[in-house]
Amino acid sequence: MSTNGAVWFVWATVVAAIAPLANPYGWRLYAHLFRYLTDSELLSRIGEFQSFDFHTAGAGQIIATVILGIAGGTLALLRGRYEHFLLAMLVSVLALRSARVLPLAALLLLPVANGAIRATFELPWRGYAERLRALDREWRGYAVAPFALLAAFGLLRLLPVGFPPEDFPVAAWPHVPEDARLFAPDKFGGYLIYRSNGTRKVFFDGRSDFYGVEFLKQYSRMVQVRPGWREYWESYHFSHALMPPDFPLVPALEQIGWRPVYQDGAAILLARGGT
Question: Rounded to two decimals, what is the model's pTM?
Fold first, then answer.
């Protein structure tokens, strides 16, 4: 890496470290993140910090991204771009260890892989790409802007936008009473916040760092219907519960008198009906 390149990386690191301090909490934001990311007991209970299940449907694209990232890092090493190699290996290891790093892998590794592959092989469209770059330099990118806007507009019209109804309580939402004291798991909690524009208070949502280890322990005990779950459940005085239909808690609540109010393939809404 050249001296100019090293200086650029140093300045980028300094700016990236200092810029987040411009927030209402100052350095305490870093302290909060440090405590959160070093709390192994907390992270062990959060699925997105576990390794991604590469056997799930649609995992092929993620597998291809990781493979391309590792391949790009290897080619970068062969070309003497040691900083790209180290970045690719670091992010690849983190992505294999934690599903939460996979989006970061796509953002960082694919550009590295693209540059390394293009520089290593004489691809048949390389001359065409160089001509496009020359045109872009001449027009300063303005010529591409209309095409990019048209493509974005077309994609928004063609592709479905919003929460997939097969995974979130999209159809169940109108059936939830406004005054309900509602239980919902973290995945549904985030959707409820979005759907209500932040006006509905939820029991749990995906911001697990705000809830703490003890809450997650009790939450796990409750949703897995382990001994002592009902005492914890009753302490919250829920009037309704919104869950996926295959949640272990669903038959347990029905056994103690809760009744279904609405159900589809993505969610079931139960109402308190007994003791």
Answer: 0.66
Contact 204, 243 (CB under 8 A): no
Do 209 and 111 have their domain in common?
no
* Residues whose CB falls within 8 Å of the CB of residue 228, separated by 6 or more in sequence, listed in order: 221
**Structural domain of residue 103, as residue ranges?**
3-157
Spatial distance between the Cα atoms of 17 and 30, rounded to a whole number of angstroms: 10
CA distance 85 to 105: 13
The residues pairing with 268 across neighbouring beta strands, listed in sequence order, are 243, 263
Kindly state whether residues 135 and 208 are assigned to the same domain.
no
Confidence tier at 275 by pLDDT (50, 70, 90): very low
CB 7 within 8 A of CB 83: no
pLDDT tens-digit readout, 244-258: 999 999 999 999 999
What tokens does 147 get? 């095409």
Statement to judge: residues 244 and 134 lie in one domain? no
User: Are residue 49 and residue 86 in the same domain, yes or no?
Assistant: yes
d(CA 121, CA 71): 13
Who wins on pLDDT, 52 or 269?
269
Number of structural domains the chain divides into: 2
Backbone angles phi, psi at 102, to 5 degrees: -60, -45
Kindly give the pairing relationship between strand 240-243 and strand 259-263. unpaired
CA distance 91 to 73: 10
- Tens digit of each residue's pLDDT (9 = 90 or more) over 1-49: 556 667 887 888 888 888 888 888 888 888 888 887 887 777 777 777 8
Angle at 106 between CA 105 and CA 107, to 5 degrees: 90
Backbone angles phi, psi at 270, to 5 degrees: -110, 150
Question: Do both 238 and 132 map to the same domain?
Answer: no
Query: Based on the domain organization, do 264 and 181 belong to the same domain?
Result: yes
Amino acid identity, position 25: Y
